[in-house]
Design a protein that fits this description.
Blueprint lengths: L1 H10 L11 H22 L5 H23 L13 H25 L5 H18 L8 E3 L5 E3 L5 H21 L5 H22 L9 H41 L2 H17 L1 H20 L6 E3 H18 L3 E7 L5 E3 L3 H13 L5 E10 L2 E8 L19 H12 L2 E7 L3 E9 L3 H9 L14
Parallel strand pairs: 4-6
Antiparallel strand pairs: 1-2, 3-5, 6-7, 7-9, 8-9
Helix pairs in contact: 2-3, 2-8, 3-4, 3-8, 4-5, 4-6, 5-6, 6-7, 7-8, 9-10, 10-11, 11-12
């Protein structure tokens, strides 16, 4: 029996058919499901601005309405084909009027404020709608004859021209606003704009076939989804900037501690009594140290390594005045790179405060070298050491180690490794990937970094 079935199949006596699916209907249902899900996400997303959420919601509803009209093609239904194709005219007028409106709404999504240019865009969209409405009583835009033939009038391309002007305005705004930003900020808006152009061009070139699903309709669905992603990414980046600002403030508070200020001022007062010139030099260093700590709150992620070392020296010089048994040495063979601000100084501070203060002769050495594709910075001390695996005791936490590690990893893609042996000392090693040297520092910070006189530099 099985052989008979196989033979019949081979002879064509029986054919196997899969279920008949209408690809246009499947595409339409997929669009509805996708846009409905996006509406739900917009309603529940409390993180993006209310104005952006409202604009995107209106956009999604307009796209759903337009695609439903395209799919159902109400004006072509038998019951709607009476009265000189009135329903078909109304359908076409609605579609002609709403397209520029969508482009203006997309412009509002990427525009944080509503400048005069937005009002000009809305004026153009209003003019287009007014011109389209003339089709009810005049063939100046288009005519639809009882046999269903569509005929453009002298102003038949008004919608296309105004839409092109609005898209060009959107592109110019994006390029003007984000030309100095990272490229990913432009990628999604430009991709969306190109989708609109391609979708419209495809529809204009199409001379037949099923018009219930259009290139423009698909492009608008993609625009809604990708613009929502873009707006949400904008929120994420703004939130990251707020966190960075908060970290800068917290870092500044950590570095400028009340007892350090009090002890330093006491040292300066004693130096003035004993040696006014030395007291004056110490006061100058201390004021510069405080100013550089305040500069840490600026919107700059990295600074030249030489500037970080200048800040470190100011701190170390003050501490060596307070603790004559402490000595800080430098062997800087590589300075041609950038580093997150307040990176080396907190590690030197840890070495002095928790390592060598109690030593009869406490030595902290700071060295830098270029090793293959890495800038290596080491801070060594001959202090008391500690157990790196043990949790810090209350009041004895090592200042800034985790903060430094986090910033080095996130900002520079580097790492911080701490090794310590009780009774022998601690070594903190920073590894910064090589990425452009001094020129990179000048590009990112706008400063020219010069080596200090008397320091060893790489040949």
């Amino acid at each position: 029996m099985m052989s008979m079935v196989c033979e019949a199949h081979l002879q064509g006596d029986s054919e196997v058919h899969g279920p008949d699916f209408d690809p246009v209907t499947i595409t339409f249902v997929f669009e509805l499901v996708l846009l409905s899900g996006l509406l739900y996400v917009l309603a529940s997303d409390v993180y993006i601005k209310r104005e952006k959420r409202r604009t995107l919601t209106v956009l999604v509803l307009l796209v759903i309405g337009q695609n439903v009209i395209f799919y159902l093609d109400i004006g072509s239904l038998p019951w709607a084909a009476r009265d000189d194709q009135l329903f078909k005219k109304l359908e076409t007028i609605l579609l002609y009027s709403v397209r520029p409106v969508m482009i203006v709404l997309f412009t509002e999504v990427v525009w944080d404020k509503a400048p005069k240019a937005i009002m000009a865009s809305w004026t153009l969209a209003g003019i287009n709608a007014a011109v389209s409405l003339t089709a009810l009583f005049s063939p100046v835009v288009f005519s639809i004859y009882p046999n269903g033939i569509f005929q453009r009038g002298p102003l038949g391309y008004t919608c296309l021209v105004i839409s092109a002007l609005l898209i060009l305005n959107l592109l110019c705004f994006l390029i003007r606003t984000y030309r100095t930003s990272k490229h990913f900020r432009l990628a999604i808006p430009i991709l969306n704009t190109l989708m609109l152009i391609v979708g419209t061009s495809y529809d204009m070139a199409m001379t037949g076939g099923d018009t219930r699903i259009t290139g423009l309709g698909l492009a608008l669905v993609g625009n809604c989804v990708f613009y929502y992603i873009w707006v949400h990414l904008q929120f994420v980046r703004a939130h990251e900037n707020e966190l960075k600002a908060s970290q800068r403030i917290q870092l500044m508070k950590t570095q400028i501690r009340p007892h350090f200020l009090f002890n330093t001022l006491s040292t300066i007062r004693a130096e003035y009594a004993r040696d006014p010139d030395l007291g004056e030099q110490t006061l100058t260093k201390f004021s510069k140290y405080l100013r550089q700590n305040l500069d840490a709150m600026e919107e700059v992620d990295v600074i030249p390594f030489s500037r970080e070392m200048e800040h470190t020296r100011l701190y170390a010089d003050i501490e060596m005045l307070r603790f004559p048994s402490v000595r800080v040495e430098y062997d800087l063979r590589d300075e041609d790179f950038v580093i997150p601000f307040l990176t080396v100084q907190p590690l030197v501070e840890n070495a002095i405060r928790h390592g060598v203060r109690g030593r009869k002769e406490g030595i902290v050495s700071v060295s830098s070298r270029l090793e293959k594709n890495w800038h290596i910075v080491e801070i060594r001390d001959n202090g008391v050491g500690f157990d790196v695996s043990a949790p810090p005791k209350p009041g004895e936490s090592h200042i800034g180690i985790e903060n430094v590690r986090t910033r080095v990893e996130q900002v520079s893609g580097g790492s911080l490794q701490v090794k310590s042996e009780i009774g022998k000392g601690t070594t903190a090693t920073l590894r910064i990937p090589a990425s452009g040297g001094r020129n990179e520092a000048e590009r990112q910070t706008g400063e020219k970094s010069e080596p200090r006189n008397g320091e060893k530099t790489a040949p």
